[in-house]
Every structure is written in structure tokens, then in C-alpha cells.
Amino acid sequence: MLTEEIELTTTHRSPALSATNIEAAVKALRERGLRVSAARRLVLEALYGAEGPLSAERIAQGLEGRLPRSDLASVYRNLETLEEVGLVRHVHLGHGPGLYALAAPEHEYLVCESCHAVRTVAKAELDGIRSQVLDRFGFEARFTHFPLVGLCPRCLSESHDHEENEHAHP
Amino acid sequence: MLTEEIELTTTHRSPALSATNIEAAVKALRERGLRVSAARRLVLEALYGAEGPLSAERIAQGLEGRLPRSDLASVYRNLETLEEVGLVRHVHLGHGPGLYALAAPEHEYLVCESCHAVRTVAKAELDGIRSQVLDRFGFEARFTHFPLVGLCPRCLSESHDHEENEHAHP
DNA sequence: CCGTAACTGCGAACGACTCGCAAAAACTAA
DNA sequence: TTAGTTTTTGCGAGTCGTTCGCAGTTACGG
């Protein structure tokens, strides 16, 4: 099976106010006694400029020329550090590589098992479902690190169509 | 990070009526023009005798001496074939290897992000949540291939405890 | 501007699969 | 039963995503 590309169907944040926020992140790092190296700053720039979650690989390649390339292992280490600090979060949207994004604002993900479309939603949008899961199972659902997986509306209706065709056979 | 062992908290099926059902599976294979080799039968025996989903690795090792060892690549190939035939299904319960189980009866999984405990439930138990997700997002949730991830009751209450301790600091 | 952590970049190793290929079954038809 | 065809096996090597070891840099506090 080929590794399938994941496409995002929603937009995350405007790529504008980057620099300002990066300095806030830099401050958070220094407060923890962490150093602000060029490589680390680069990872931050990639994430602040991104429209959706990014793979470590794509960050290391410099986002198709928009940023300088850097060492993949270091990108992974920096993403890990940033995640420990709470600035970054990663999500596993299927069989591909993990994808990284800023931790705030907190997004949750719905992924279609059939077409692999990703729907990104604000945490609050899933609160209704979260409270039902809590009621039934005492379990607090989180769709930040692993998504809610299922069939998207389109694939769902296609699968209904096929069922009908099958039933139509006498 | 170490690969963490996944423990199952529920029982799947009684390990008794194996042989009978294996012959049904064998029949299904032959009907599709597939051959029933020793290796293939072994995978089937492992799954019919198991109390929960198994990794390919564990099947290849012969389930700690209960069955003969076999070739890992072939185990993967056979699991794939059995899955195509519809006899087997696999689930990704976190960062470890995929786990394989008989497709019927259809189980769904809840996994704790913190302690990695797995709760296996019958499909019907999640129908309420499924219909709420369908209403809100037009999305049919499936927790068979990827689980519903969150915090289990115990880890949830522990995280509340910690919050209280933090708040207690003036 | 010096010392000393922290951090980098490289290559190698890792786990979980997947593939290529020659040798060995399994079914089929004779 | 055996010969023929086609699947399947077992091995080794390869891939992908990620992590590790380590010598060489570099950031920052003094």
C-alpha cells in the first residue's frame, strides 16, 4: 500500500502575526533555561507560518524553499522540546508521519477512513460528544493526539449507494 | 520513549469452540480459491485461540510456545489475505504495532492516552455516541480500526487531584 | 570574551512493515 | 499417483518514520 498524502480541508490561522508570537515563544523557552538556536527558531517559524499541521520531514526540507533546510534529527528533537514546553502538539492522522502544530489554539481532528480527508475543528465543537462519552464511559475523549476516525459525509453516501446497487440485484 | 505494552482489560471470547470455526474459515478461504497452507492455518489458530488482539510478531513467535514459530513476513502476508477475505481486522491502539483479531464479533476500542489501558466494547455500546457524531458532523464514527482515545476514569481523577494540589499553592 | 552547558549535524540503529525471488507446498487434472 | 500449474513460503534486503550516540559547535551567564 502506498503512503497516502493527507490533505487538510480547513484553514487554521492567518499566517500574518507570526513574528510577534514567535518572540513570545522565545521568551517562554528562555524562561525555562532553554536556548534559542537558529535551528530551533526555524522550527518555530515553520509552525507559526503554517496553515495546518506539518511533518518533521517537511520542516527539515524548509517548506519547499520558503525556509532554509535543516537536519531532520534536530527538527525531531526540537519539536520534542517545544512539545515538552507546551508550545507544540503533534497528531497522528493515519498511517503517515506524525504532524506538528502550535498547541494553541487547541484543535481536534476528524479523519475519514476511506478518503483520508481531515476536518479540523475547535475543541468546543466536540464538547457535546465529549460529555456523552464521559456519561457513558467515565472516559474523557480527546481528539487532539489521535483523531476521531470514521466515514465522512461523502464517503458515507457513496457507501449507501453501493449498498443500494447490491440490493437492486435480484 | 519505550514501546509500552498494551494490556487488555476485557475478555473477548471463550477459547473453546476454536476448531469448528477454523474449519468454517478454511471453507471461506477455499471458496475464494485460496490455499490452506500450514502457515495460514497457524495464523488462524492463533487468532481463534486468542483472548484479545495480537501483534504479527507475537503470532510469528508462536505465542510463547503455544504454537510453532513461523516467518514474520508470511504472517503479515497471511493476515493481509485474511483481512481481504473479511475474516480478520486490525486495530492501531497507539504507538506500538498493529494488532489483529477475528473480524466477528465486531469490537470497538477505547484507549487511555495516559496509562494506555484498553477497553474493548461491543459495537452497539457506542451507537449512542455514533448517532450524536452523525447528527453534528454527518460523519459515521468507527472505533474499530482506530480507537476512541482519551483519559480513563482513573487517570482522569488523578489529573483532577493534581490540579487541586496546584491550586492549593498560594 | 571565556567557560561550560545545551545544541547541532552526521551516521548508524531502530521498529514495524513490505518486497523480490528462488525453493517448496497445495490443489487440479490426468 | 503423479505431473503440472500456481500459490505460498522463507529468507534477506529494503523502506519509512523516528531515535540514538557522539564529536564538534554555539548560546548565553559570568
Greatest interface and its participating residue counts: A-B, 27 and 28 residues
Within CATH, the superfamily of the largest domain in chain A carries the name Winged helix-like DNA-binding domain superfamily/Winged helix DNA-binding domain
Quaternary state of the chains:
homodimer
Sheet with most strands of chain A: 3 strands, antiparallel
Structural commentary:
Two copies of one chain form a homodimer. In chain A, 45% of the residues lie in helices and 16% in strands. In chain A, α1 (18-31) crosses α2 (38-49). Chain A folds into two domains: 5-9 and 14-104, Orthogonal Bundle (Arc Repressor Mutant, subunit A), CATH 1.10.10; 106-170, Dna Ligase, domain 1, CATH 3.30.1490.190. In chain A, β4 (107-112) and β5 form a beta hairpin. The two termini of chain A are 35 Å apart. The model of chain A is unreliable at 1-18 (pLDDT under 50). Chain A has a three-stranded antiparallel β-sheet with strand order 1-3-2. Chain A has a three-stranded mixed β-sheet with strand order 5-4-7. The first copy, chain A, has helices at 18-31, 38-49, 56-60, 62-65, 72-85, 127-137, 153-168, and strands spanning 54-55, 88-91, 99-102, 107-112, 118-122, 140-141, 148-151. Chain A is globular. With 170 residues, chain A is an alpha+beta fold. The A-B interface holds A 110, 112-113, 119, 125, 128-129, 132-133, 136-143, 145-153, 156 and B 94, 110, 112-113, 119, 125, 128-129, 132-133, 136-143, 145-153, 156. β7 of chain A pairs antiparallel with β6 of chain B, so a sheet runs across the interface. Chain A binds a DNA duplex (30 and 30 nucleotides) through residues 1, 3, 30, 33-40, 55-57, 70-74, 76-78, 96-98.
